[in-house]
Amino acid sequence: MKIGLVTPYIYPLPGGVNAHVAKLYENLIGRGHDVRILSSTHGAQKSSEGDVIRLGYGFSVPTNGSVGTLTFSHRYRSLVQEVLDRERFDLLHLHEPFVPFLSLQLLRFSTSVNIATFHAYAGWSPSYEFGKRALQGYARRLDGRIAVSAAARHFIDRYFPGDYKVIPNGVDLRQYQGVVPFARWRDGTANILYVGRFENRKGVLYLLKAYRVLRKQGFDCRLLLVGSGPQEREARRYVATRRLQGVEFLGRVSDVDKARYFATADVYVSPATGQESFGIVLLEAMAAGTPIVCSDIHGYKGVVRRGEQALLVPPRDHLALVEAIGRLLADPELRGRMAASGRERAVQFSWENITAKVDDYYGFVIRRLAAQGQLPSGFRAEIPVAPRAQPVGLAK
Questions:
Q1: What single DSSP character describes residue 179?
Q2: Looking at domain 173-349, does it have CATH number 3.90.1150.10?
Q3: Which CATH superfamily is domain 2-170+351-371 in?
Q4: Do residues 164 and 156 make contact, with C-beta atoms less than 8 angstroms apart?
């Protein structure tokens, strides 16, 4: 099929949705599809960069405790129609389809099969609450709906009820196999790792408070902080005013170096306070065989199993973090069991497996539309054959 993957965020800037789209693109091509990525740009308008098609201009805005993107163009209608007429997609797969305005414009003029993936989770969304009536028409144009977790499904279904297929995020297992740790950090001191943005919802200040207590308790450990964000200055000030030793601010790193930091770490900690729909970074830690301490929040509980790959603690409780991290640092045998369990579980989330599930869902939606005589005019590919049912004795 000819497939368009739509991201409302500026591709390929770092972020969970863009990382998801990049791997889905790579693996769908591996399965024989013809795929393009539709995104926006911060700079001068570019019509194409290989398989990346850019429409409109992106502007960063605060959203859901983090930073999102709004896309605009003074001639969106003609741009979108030109691209759709030229590319003739059989299927558009829109990620976060209700983020203004790129996805909405594509959905408005699409004559393809329209699939959406919803990535976000929040307790309450004022934009959805007050905008759901205006968005209902767009929602009706969706032929299939995916949520990356039960938490994400529960969140979006509150505003746009419907049938949602839960297909999680994936992880590139090859990126974390045979990785060499950083020798400078393997000196006998235990390494606690954080990877993520420095912002309130990620909870990095709670981790700094926990680390301070661990040092006072006599643990020989250091804290490796990978990432950046609006709270970095506050975090650095906390470290400086309390004269905390062993805290390394490493900034943003390449994917290769990120894998090496996971291989270097004795414990990975994600102290997020909430509003996480999934937790891709937990998959990365499991793939690397790094034991995890993380917050006991909805989005994380669908990724890790309590006591097997991770110790879960109440969010915003730095003393609970102290207890869990200290338990792992003091018990090499427990760390070894959790590392092995994490690697085993990560296989279920390989991008090959996740892409196969997405591809199967495409076929399911297309066959359903064909059976109802509702295939859109833009669909020109062959209708995918239904997977053969397994014999009862072989069913898993």
A1: P
A2: no
A3: Glycogen Phosphorylase B; (3.40.50.2000)
A4: yes
Is residue 93 over pLDDT 70? yes
Q: Above 50 in pLDDT, residue 309?
A: yes
Mind listing the pLDDT tens digit for each residue in 246-270? 999 999 999 999 999 999 999 999 9
For CA atoms 41, 47, 52, 53, give the dihedral sign: positive
- Please report where in the chains the tokens 């196969």 appear, as a residue: 356
* Beta-carbon contacts of residue 328 (< 8 Å; ≥ 6 apart): 266, 267, 291, 293, 311, 334, 335, 338
Assign 213 to helix, strand or coil.
helix
What six digits make up the tokens of 122? 């929040």
DSSP H helices in 88-183? 102-109, 126-140, 150-159
**What are the start and end residues of each CATH 3.40.50.2000 domain in the chain?**
2-170+351-371, 173-349
The rounded distance, in Å, linking the Cα atoms of 5 and 37 is: 5
- Residue 65 has a pLDDT of 47
Strand partners, 30: none
Q: Is 232 or 128 the better-scoring residue by pLDDT?
A: 232
Give the whole-angstrom CA distance, residue 342 versus residue 358.
23
Amino acid at 115: I
Q: Of 165, 121, 158, 160, nearest to 138 (Cα)? A: 160
Of the chain, the percentage scoring pLDDT greater than 90 comes to 78
3-state DSSP assignment of residue 70:
strand
**Calpha distance 384→4 (Å, rounded):** 17
Chain segment 149-168, per-residue pLDDT in tens: 999 999 999 999 999 999 99
Contact 270, 210 (CB under 8 A): no
Residue type, 368: R
Q: 274 or 365: whose pLDDT is higher? A: 365
